[in-house]
Amino acid sequence: MPEGAETSMFNLLPGDGYIIDSDNDSLTITDGPADIPEIGFSIEPDMVAEGDRATILFELSAPAPAGGLEVNWMELDPDGAGDGQLVLEESTNIADVRGLVEDGQPVGVVVTVAEGATEAELVLEFDQDGVPEGAETSMFNLLPGDSYIIDSDNDSLTITDGPADIPEIGFSIEPEMVAEGDRATILLELSAPAPAGGLEVSWTEVSDDRAGDARFVVEDSTNIVDARGLVEDGVPVGAVVTIAEGATQAALVLAIDQDGVPEGAETSMFNLLPGDGYIIDSDNDSLTITDGSMPITSLSETQGLLNLNEDLNPNFDNLNFDRSMVFRPAEPMTI
């Protein structure tokens, strides 16, 4: 039976005993005809002020089919970068635009790219309400559809309505691998000084694994005024950190509690959340920390045997293989 494209998307999940390669943590497979267009989108500019315009750019790898191509995207957060109006009459190769509604609630947009087009532009205009506000950020992701494949390198866009001097912020962690009892430092980098009164930055945990029980050590941190848990419906889901006024860098120290229980690798993944007063650096918007308090194995260079290194690791109770297992190479082996 002839069908349109059918797309499946998969993400690796954190687990005991391994760390996820953040550059290769997802895959997409599409069943569809060879000439089905691959589509991606972007926005120019990605920072606007009220009263400004921006253009969403669509790129197709093949012409839109007869009757046009319906493309869907969803808003990922409720912040809303101002009140953006779609200006269809000044757009290019856009046949129609309408809201995407689920359970009676608007959740995104459906755009029809004109038949035969390989490029399209949708103009947005941001209303001016005259009310001073902080940065308002909206994030959008393309949704799978029946007649196109998503370009995984251009499947999302972010637009921010805010003043020109608003800081862009990213974060990282050093070291990424810790043991219970160790410390790690979350490094926050701002492109402009934190405003008067400081800057509240939030992130959420996107895994259930949890790399040990970490505590904020504010007194040993740098340019951190306050750090507290982010709670939703009574459940802790992340953190809120206040960066000191005027700072362009901050360092938050974490202490990883030691419970004395031998465990496998425990990995926690965190994503920055949009917020008033800053823009997220999309190249540094997530971090991963792993508590690697796990068994260590080594290969014997002289014998070519798989041995357990008892000097380095005395905890064998949670190993998943027989200690007497030996790997004997058929040919001489160099390690």
Short key terms for the protein model shown above:
single chain; 335 residues; mainly beta; Immunoglobulin-like
* Overall pLDDT metric: 78
Estimate the strand proportion: over 45%
Q: How many distinct helices?
A: 0
Distance between the termini: 54 Å
- The helix fraction, in percent, is under 10%
The fold-level CATH name of the largest domain is Immunoglobulin-like
Shape: globular
Order of strands in the sheet with the most strands? 4-13-11-6-9-8
Task: Determine Rg (CA atoms, Å).
Answer: 25 Å
The CATH architecture assignment of the largest domain turns out to be: Sandwich
H and E string: EEEEEEEEEEEEEEEEEEEEEEEEEE
Care to describe what's here?
This protein is mainly beta. It has two domains: 33-161, Immunoglobulins (Immunoglobulin-like, Sandwich), CATH 2.60.40.10; 168-291, Immunoglobulin-like, CATH 2.60.40.10. It has no helices and 26 strands. It has strands at residues 6-11, 26-31, 38-44, 47-48, 53-60, 69-75, 84-92, 94-102, 105-113, 119-126, 136-142, 149-150, 156-161, 168-174, 177-178, 183-190, 199-205, 214-216, 224-232, 235-243, 249-256, 266-272, 279-280, 286-291, 297-299, 306-308.
Summed up, what is this model?
The chain is an all-beta fold. The chain has strands at 6-11, 26-31, 38-44, 47-48, 53-60, 69-75, 84-92, 94-102, 105-113, 119-126, 136-142, 149-150, 156-161, 168-174, 177-178, 183-190, 199-205, 214-216, 224-232, 235-243, 249-256, 266-272, 279-280, 286-291, 297-299, 306-308.
